# Entry
Amino acid sequence: MSETHKNKQSSKMKSDNEELDLGVLFNLLRSLFISIGQGIKWIFIAVFNLIIAFFIYLKKHILKFIIAALIGTILGAILEYKIKDPLYSSSMTVQANYESIIQLYKDIEYCKGLISEDDFVSLGEYFKIDSLSAATIKKIEVIPYTNDNQIILAYNDFISKLDSNVIENIDFDKFSENIPKEEFLYHVITVESTSRTIFEKLEKPIINSLAENPYYSKLLQTEIGNLKSQENVLNISMIELDSLRQLYKKLSLNESIKENAATNFYLGNSEIDKRDIVVFDKYIKANIDLVEIKSEMNLKNEIVNVVSSFNKTGAEVKGFFRNKMVLGFFAGIIIILIYLLVIEMNRFLINQEKKLKGN
# Structure
């Protein structure tokens, strides 16, 4: 009986301990949520007070901001419509073969360097134009033409050159984030100039710079020679396959004449028919290969294929943040803001200095 009593007492103590643990846990959670709520409230009040202080400060100096923005806008308008020459832009899309895209990017970087250094004599020599015309060129750049389809094609082309063991370590997402520019099929060259009619003069020098490179010329000759050899082999194969098909037709016709003469009932020679089908399949396959080779020859017959040329006249470059009036408006506000911050900082430092002297 005493043992049963002890068990009951033990169970009761265990239950009390569990209730105590749950109570402590609930109290901790309650304190945590209260702290989080107070923290959020404090942040909200701090942000609200900061916004109010900003508007009070803005109200105090609103006239200064309006005057600065107005002056900046007026100066920007004078620069935009009276002093600055209009800027025009045009683009050319190219397809570079034989890895010549590497040289294309180097050439464009070279031209960008000459523009930044105002070396218009060298720039004129590169484009075979006079230095005054070269001085009108304000910007030149080349970027890959990208879209989802182009990235997929580049990925497929890239992995086709790799070993099967390496492909497992390269997924599409990683490739699309770090895709080499050489893997893109098309590239867009954009030029900005104060001359509206200079763009046509720039196309040939850019293309000839690559076309006259001996290394790429050798690759072109080798590739086209290989493709022509394949074309000749396929043409000969198709002639032979066609002759073989004609032979099978004659044999089939002779067999049909013999069968009709003997039984007046002909179901066809299945062996000859099967051979004819196999030959026909090979003929179709050779024809498809020939079409693909001719298409590849057309694409690779030039070191650089011009997909779309520069326009005869460039389009005027426009944009909200390119407009000098807009830039002047924001520049005026930023300048007066910096000025006021410097004044406030100076005032703060003076007060701190006085406090230090007073101590």
User: Anything to note?
Assistant: Confidence is low (pLDDT under 50) at residues 264-268.
